[in-house]
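Lab meeting notes turned into a lecture example. A postdoc, R.K., suggested we walk through two folding results consecutively so the class can see how the record format repeats. The first protein's sequence and structure tokens come next.
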Amino acid sequence: MPQNIRTGRIYDHARYTALYDLELGDFREDLPFYRHHLPAEPCAILELGCGTGRISRSLAADGHRLTGIDLSLPMLTVAARAATAAGPRYACMDMTALALRTTFGAIIAPYNTLNLLTRPEDLRTCLSQVRHLLAREGVLLLQLYLPDQNLRALAGKKRFQFRIFNRPDGGQVIKEILKSIAPPSCLMEITERYRLRFRKEQPDEDWQYSYQILGYGFTQWLEIFTEQGFRLEAAYGDYALTPFVPEEHTTLLVALKKAGGIPQ
């Protein structure tokens, strides 16, 4: 790794929080999915992986009672600063150890949050606790990332992508993304490099963050949802709510409800 690239952890780094908010702070395309499936009347909602609070604030403005949890204290700090007196409420909490006593009319895990649980036993623990906290007629709403066949065919080789964002101060951020998945593993390796290009009076910075996500396919996700006592209500492949087609879509938006009986 070039020595001028500094590394950090995505959960506890203030710089990553600022970069995350620059990219996603104004993102609204996924909100229609949640609004489409949430109860018509205001209800209590738990958001797993709330980040800087972009979704929880919007749903709270609709009248819902939001509780958001995240592992990142820098992100929760940003979320809390933007919250109104009426909410949302935020807590630093692991989604595999949900220390909550109330039930919720809806639980949501936006923008690939559940993919971050790379161990199947952690995923099962999380879903078991979510089912316990979900009201009888409640709904679980998830966005998941599914690796495409072209990436799988690379057999561990990295695929490169990049995006450019304009900063409010006139600078730019170049985001480079390297992804790989080596069959038969379901673990996907991701490296994000951020090249911060400031105005002339500030030195440029380069940051790198590496992490793993769970790269299950559609069938694997359905199997684990069924195993944990959920039934599929709807599945979409994009934010326009196009019906999901496994061969075409890498975004999976699902609405789940409790199935009858006791999970295995």
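The second example is placed directly after the first for contrast:
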Amino acid sequence: MVVVSLPLKLLSCVRNKVTYLVAALALSLIGGTDLVAGGSDLLLNKRLQETKNTTLSSNFPWKCNIMTTTFWIGNNKNSYTSTVNFDSAWDTSWHENYGGEDDPDNRAGSRPKNFFPKLNPFYIALPFNDVAFPDKAAKLIPWYKKEFVSRFKSVCKDKWIAVHHRGKFCFGQWQDVGPFRVDHAEYVFGNAQPDTPTGAGLDVSPAIRDYLAMGGRAACDWRFVDAKEVPYGPWIEYGEKSFVLAQLEKTKKNPRQFKSLGLPEGAKNWDPTKGY
């Protein structure tokens, strides 16, 4: 393969349709290239669909070259913030509902080593809280009218997001607000750039960090995706197991609820670390 250095502007996230075509043509002529953070929407969508065998029908744009940092449920104190993530912006019992601290250093695959979480370990934070800023939410969130239920129910929580880093793609669900800001809808849904003390505009969980092999801090690309576009992977497998485990935990407090789950009697002693 011939290695060609292309101008930074050509490989950056572009919105102009003419530049799209020029970038795609140039890369096709040189036989393609490994994507790093900063590919165009056209190229990133193509690579995502090819590598994950999925079809994208939504047209959410990519946010490119976004400084991405790691955060986790339970404790995230650092030199910039003293935040302790026991609660999320939309879940006042986040730590309890998850099952404990999502220790970033003591892992067993995509989960904390000491327990199996009752929520999906593939989670993300973006710097906007729709419940706290309803006017901005109604004006800027593309799916707001379709999914709005009530003033204090978030239409952002659980939204699926694709994250790209050096040719690898991972998926996670929006579960909290940050880094640093809670009001920056103009970046999350518009064309503004992140405006935080560290320049970070995306927080990802240890599971996503490890899947992408990005270390604690790296430049990534991200975009919203519809649930039907999310391919099968650990973000689905862990999510499914976590959901079943959470339901079983509830039946321990109220055994009569077990029959309503439609599970075989042996499921009462199910160990998610050993499969189904």
